């Protein structure tokens, strides 16, 4: 019985891969810009761990990291610490400056950012302006070659789209945007696409983004961070983020919204892609998946695997040590 179960799962994955490829084509080692609001929830840190391990395995190429929160300045130091832990401390790193966008809560980022002796990183609370970093990265890439993964409020992308040169670069260089947000059909003021000062600009972003967008809302019931991550060394800043987030996610685990979005960038065969509908915002600044308004450039992604299998895959990636040498 177990044998046939695994054979059936393999067959379903193969069919899912062919279905997904119909919408995305065969993407060999996607070139990824990771956009985060890291600091108020630990799944951002978990997503960065997944991102780096996928890069270690040759499944993606990381072009840079963007910190899009204007209220929690220490997030940029946390990004630098995680990049450094995985041997990529020289990655381009951009930061939002001067806005009131973002969750002001600082549940772990200052502790990590200021512990430079522990983690060996350079930055604490300041980096280059995100618009400059976005433009520099995109201008150096081949046309239609860049994947942007946003796991927080996408103010950095709004800033890029509102800039004349930035808008042209999006149209030329970006092949797809993967956004972690609410994707249910019931209207809801989402954390990333409605709260924390994001509501006024989301409609503009949704209506004017000149390309394909894949919206990911799964992850609440996919709990990670409490199985293998506690066994990693204390020099791992991702472990520290989970340890001091609220009630210690190393014990209880934490939902994996952000990790799911990152995983889709490299392994679309694990997902169903729903092309029927679009993400819209109503007059109350609530977003929802509208099955009646069909846009060919909006897609909703849904895991094809059950929660336990997704947990295993994500936990393994989060807890594997950095590649010894590059």
User: What's the average pLDDT?
Assistant: 92
Biggest sheet, open or closed, and with what strands and sense?
9 strands, mixed
> Span from first to last CA?
43 Å
Shape designation: globular
The proportion of residues forming helix, as a percent range, comes to 25-40%
Order of helices and strands: HEHEHEHHEHEHHEHEEHHEHEEEEH
Widest beta sheet: strand line-up:
4-3-2-1-5-6-7-13-10
The CATH superfamily is identified as Ribonucleoside hydrolase-like
* Count of DSSP H/I helices: 13
Q: What's the level 1 CATH class?
A: Alpha Beta
- State Rg: 19 Å
Total individual domains? 1
In short:
Helix content is 40%, strand content 17%. The protein has helices at 2-24, 43-56, 75-85, 109-113, 116-119, 130-139, 155-162, 164-173, 199-208, 237-244, 249-252, 257-266, 307-319; strands spanning 31-36, 61-67, 93-95, 128-129, 146-150, 174-180, 212-216, 223-224, 254-255, 271-274, 278-281, 287-290, 298-303. By secondary structure, the chain is α/β, with parallel strands linked by helices.
Describe this protein's structure.
This protein is α/β, with parallel strands linked by helices and 326 residues long. It has one domain: Alpha-Beta Complex (Inosine-uridine Nucleoside N-ribohydrolase, Chain A). 40% of the residues lie in helices and 17% in strands. The chain contains 13 helices and 13 strands. The chain has a 9-stranded mixed β-sheet, sandwiched between helices. Helix 9 (199-208) links the parallel strand 6 and strand 7 (212-216). Helix 2 (43-56) packs parallel to helix 3 and helix 7 (155-162) packs across helix 8.
């Amino acid at each position: 019985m177990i044998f046939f179960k695994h054979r059936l799962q393999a067959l379903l994955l193969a069919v899912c891969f062919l279905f997904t490829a119909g919408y995305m084509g065969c993407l060999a080692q996607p070139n990824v810009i990771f956009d985060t609001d890291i600091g108020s929830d630990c799944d951002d840190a978990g997503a960065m761990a997944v991102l780096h391990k996928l890069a270690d395995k040759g499944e993606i190429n990381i072009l840079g990291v963007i910190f899009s929160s204007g209220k929690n300045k220490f997030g940029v130091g946390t990004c630098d610490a995680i990049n450094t832990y995985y041997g990529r401390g020289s990655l381009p790193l951009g930061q939002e400056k001067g806005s009131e966008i973002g969750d002001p809560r600082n549940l772990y980022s200052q502790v990590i950012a200021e512990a430079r002796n522990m983690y060996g990183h350079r930055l604490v609370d300041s980096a280059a302006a995100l618009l400059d970093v976005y433009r520099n990265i995109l201008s150096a890439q081949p046309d239609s070659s860049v994947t942007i993964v946003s796991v927080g409020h996408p103010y950095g992308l709004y800033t890029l789209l509102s800039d004349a040169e930035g808008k042209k670069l999006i149209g030329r260089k970006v092949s797809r945007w993967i956004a972690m947000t609410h994707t249910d059909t019931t209207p809801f003021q989402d954390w990333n696409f409605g709260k924390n000062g994001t509501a006024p600009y989301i409609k503009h972003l949704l209506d004017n983004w000149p390309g394909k967008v894949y919206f990911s809302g799964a992850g609440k019931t996919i709990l990670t961070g409490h199985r293998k991550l506690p066994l990693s060394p204390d020099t791992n800043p991702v472990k520290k983020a989970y340890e001091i987030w609220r009630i210690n996610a190393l014990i209880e685990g934490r939902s994996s919204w952000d990790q799911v979005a990152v995983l889709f960038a490299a392994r679309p065969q694990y997902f169903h892609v729903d092309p029927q509908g679009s993400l819209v915002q109503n007059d109350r600044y609530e977003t929802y998946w509208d099955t009646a308004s069909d846009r060919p450039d909006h897609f909703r992604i849904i895991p094809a695997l059950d929660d336990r299998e997704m947990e295993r895959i994500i936990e393994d990636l989060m807890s594997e040590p950095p590649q010894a040498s590059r």
